Amino acid sequence: MSYGDPNNPYGAPQGQPQQPGYGYPAAPPVQQPYGAAAPMTTMPGKVNAARVMLWVIVALQVIGVALFAFSAVAINKAKSDNSLPGLSDYPVGVMWAFVVLALAWLVWAAVLAVKFSTGGNGLRVTTLVFGIVTAVLGIYPFVVIVGIFHIVLGILIACFVGGADGKAWFNRARY
Fold first, then answer.
1. Is the model's pTM score more than 0.90?
2. 44, 57, 78, 114: least CB-packed within 10 angstroms?
3. pLDDT averaged per 10 residues, the chain (length 175)
4. Residue ranges per domain, the chain?
C-alpha cells in the first residue's frame, strides 16, 4: 500500500508531512535535538577556591589550638610561681575551653573541605552557614590580624559557595 492517490499526476505532496488519514499508521515521534545537559566533571574555580580557603582556616585553627594550649599550660605554671602575679589571675579552664572550641572549629572546616567533591546541597548550605558564622565570629578579635583573616575568608567562602557556580556544582547529577 502506498500513501496518497496513485493516480495523482503531480506526485507526492511536498513540505511537512501531514497526519495520515484514518487507518494509516502514525508517524514516528521526532527526536529531540539535544539530550540532557552533560554532568559536571571538574569543580568550578570559585568552588575550588572556597575549598582551599577552608583548608587555610584549618591551618589557622591548628595555630590557634597550639597557642591556646600553650597559654593554658603557661598560665597553670604561673599560678604556682609568684614572680608573675598578673598572669596567674587568668582562668585556666577558660583557656582549655578555647582550645576545645578552636579544635571543634578545625574539625568542622576540615570535614567540609573533604566532602566538597561528593557533597550535595546540604553540604552547600552547611558551608554557607560556616562561612557566615566564621565572618561574624571574626569581628570580635578584629584588633588581631587573625580576626581580619577570618572575616575575609568567611565572606569569600559564603559568596563563592552561594553563587551560581556553587549551586550548579552541589546540585549536579551524580550518575
1. no
2. 114
3. 65 65 72 65 91 96 94 85 74 91 95 92 95 90 77 95 92 80
4. 45-170
